[in-house]
Amino acid sequence: MVKVLAAVLVACGLTAGVVMASVEDQIRERISPVGDVCLQGEDCGSAAPSAATAGSDGPRAGDEVYAAACQACHANGVAGAPVTGDQDAWSPRIDKGMETLISHAINGFNAMPAKGGCGSCSDEEIEAAVQYMVDEVQ
């Protein structure tokens, strides 16, 4: 009887050890890093370029930037944004000059955050988006 009890205890101990190892492996997998950082100039293997630079031959066109960043507010007048194409809303703004419109778009104005919240947009792309919206009025 003692031998049977000893064998059962050894089997349970081994099973518990295997279960604990499995749980620890699952924990290590869940908390493992999701990626690696590759700095410019380092050999990073075959890492895919980021979406911001993939296929990039220069700044995006105004209509592309508008569709990606500006349209969310300017298509419906969210938070007082002038609706694209609305001459009554845009005329007083256009009268202030393109330099002012572009400055407001880049630096933020009233409820609009800097660059309309598009952190990946260059100043040149924001300028192209402003020009696109102005062209839609005229």
Structure description:
The protein is mostly helical and 138 residues long. Helix content is 55%, strand content 0%. The chain is built from five helices and no strands. It has helices spanning 2-30, 62-74, 87-95, 98-107, 123-137. It is elongated, with a radius of gyration of 29 Å. The termini are far apart. Mean pLDDT is 81; it is low at 51-55.
Strand content: under 5%
Sheet of most strands: none
Rough outline:
elongated
Q: Would you list the SSEs in sequence order as H and E?
A: HHHHH
Q: In terms of topology, how is this protein built?
A:
Blueprint lengths: L1 H29 L31 H13 L12 H9 L2 H10 L15 H15 L1
Helix pairs in contact: 2-5, 4-5
Task: Name some characteristics of this structure.
138 residues; mainly alpha; 5 helices; 0% strand
